[in-house]
Each structure stands twice: as C-alpha cells, then as structure tokens.
Amino acid sequence: MLKNITKKPSWFVVEIIYNRILNYSSQKAAKKSWDRVMEGKALSSVGSILMAKGEPETALDYLHEYEELARSMDDRESLCLAYSQLSGAYESLNREDKAIELLEELVDLSQETKNPRMESEASRSFYQTPSSYNIK
Are 50 and 62 in contact (CB under 8 A)? Predict the structure, then answer.
C-alpha cells in the first residue's frame, strides 16, 4: 500500500480529486463550519490542480478568491502563498507584468512578517520566475 503512495499520482487519480474538489465538497464543508482556513486551503488546492491541468485562466478565479479570503483574515502566510500561485498563473498566461507585480508584493509582504522562512520562499519564487530577469 505504501508503494502506491510514494508514486506520482496518475492523471486519472488527479482528475478524480479535481472533480471532488470542484464539486465543492471541501469548500462547502469549510463554509458550513465557518472554517475559513480550510476554505482557503480548498481554494488553493483547486487552483493548484487547475494549474497542473494547464488551465491557468480557470485557476485565477479560485486563486483570486483565496487571495481575498486571506486578506479578509489578515493571514499573511496565506496571502504570500496566494501571491505566489497567482504570479505563476499570470506567468503561464504570458502576463509577465502582472506576475512580476505580484512577486514584488510577495517579497514586500514576506519582509514585513519578519519570518525568515517566508522571506526565503518569496525570494526564491521571485528569482525562479524567468520574466523577473527581464530577458528578451
């Protein structure tokens, strides 16, 4: 059984998970219990799965909702993750201007938190984005 867990999931398995999440099972459950953190995790997960499926435009809807939720809770760690995911989606859509803007916000926000782990992850995200190098 553990061998199956360590393997990369097939797209069939990812598709099943994706469909379950899209049916809002986790999002509905989180909203029913007023667990906004779980709702945010569900939105982030849906965005990630849509990105993996090559659907960045659809992912943006979920990721923007995640960003708004994180902002409303003043949850800086979640907001940093949302900025990172959003920048990746915009990068996929060749919207480098928006991707860089979000990455700059991510770096600024992570520095405000004075959390070394968040600062490190933000810097790594920024410098791993090809468009941040301004290569033509």
Answer: yes
Task: Please give the model's pTM, rounded to 2 decimal places.
Answer: 0.69
Q: For 9-67, what is each residue's pLDDT tens digit? A: 455 566 666 666 655 555 566 555 567 888 888 889 889 988 988 999 999 999 999 99
Residue 73 is predicted with a pLDDT of 93
The residue type of 47 is G
For the chain, report the end-to-end CA distance as a whole number of angstroms.
48
Helices (H) then strands (E): counts for the chain: 8, 0
Sign of CA dihedral 63, 17, 42, 31: positive
Q: Domains of the chain, with CATH numbers?
A: 16-133 (1.25.40.10)
Sign of CA dihedral 47, 52, 53, 56: positive
- For residue 1, CA distances in Å to 6, 7, 18, 51 come to 9, 11, 22, 28
Q: If we measure between CA atoms, which residue out of 57, 131, 127, 121 comes closest to residue 97?
A: 131
pLDDT over 60 at 75, yes or no: yes
